[in-house]
Amino acid sequence: MASLLAAFINNMQTTPPFPRVKTQTSRGMSDYQLKMAFIMPTMILLILMNIFPLLWSLYLSFHRYKASMPTPPKFIGVRNYSRLLADPEIWGYFQTTAYFVLLAVAAQFFIGFGLALLLNRDFRYKGFVTTMLLLPMMLSPVVVGLFWRFILSSDNAGLLNYFLSPFLKSPIGWTTNPKVAMLAVVIVDTWMWSPFMMLIALAGLSAVPKSLYEAADVDRASAWFKFRWITLPLVSPLLLIALLFRTMDAFKMFDIVYVLTREGGPGTATETVSMNLYKLAFRNYNTGKACAMAYILLIIIVALSNIYVKYLNRVKGEA
Length: 319
Description:
It is globular and about 75 Å long. The chain is mostly helical and about 325 residues long. The protein has helices at about 1-15, 30-60, 80-85, 90-120, 125-140, 140-150, 160-165, 180-205, 210-220, 225-250, 255-260, 275-280, 285-319; strands spanning about 65, 75.
């Protein structure tokens, strides 16, 4: 009996009183998995909203297709592109667009850069004046178009014709005269987007080290010398970036023309490529041809952008 009790006690000492339970630890997400979990919804949204329509429009540009018809797209190769490039009216729209881009971007560049040079100094109420000059850029293009349509009204009820009436024999048809209508569009676009040029140029001017000007003053350099050899080389990269953005946006300009001149009037005097593209797609429902025209415009914008970027790299190297 004693031997059995001693064996029981030894067995109790060697074996644990409770069975060991195996626990499974949950493994957390790695940094890469966590990063992908946040990025993937945005990537999927971008693909659905941008990349898929881009590829779908490229597919339709090689097909005969009308969005208003139930028939499926019919493959016709590059016929849409050849017809567009052989159409003299299309080249007329491109000439109108190029004329607008040259006038508007040049005017915005000189006005914006000039305002930036005036604001690049310390004076009273500088912040208030800068904010007021930036207000046109913050408005909606539709609001700007409606606002200027009343100002540029062809009769004496228009604000601009009212102030010019003592110097004119008859009111100017700003939006009804084919010879003046494009100038009116340029004026409105310049009023709206010159502050953008001013803002970019002012940022570049404020970043120029003042020590360079102080060294030039010690050497008794003229104002033109400081502008030509200090200000312009250091600010030119930012000016080229502003020109790049404004050129790209001006080629796609649609809303101001649509509101101000009532869809490119009078006649086709202000009908840009974007306006004609809108009519092809949403008036005539010629979807395939409209997609082809959109890609021709895209190729032109990409080519101009490459020229800007190439020149920008050279200017940055020289600076």
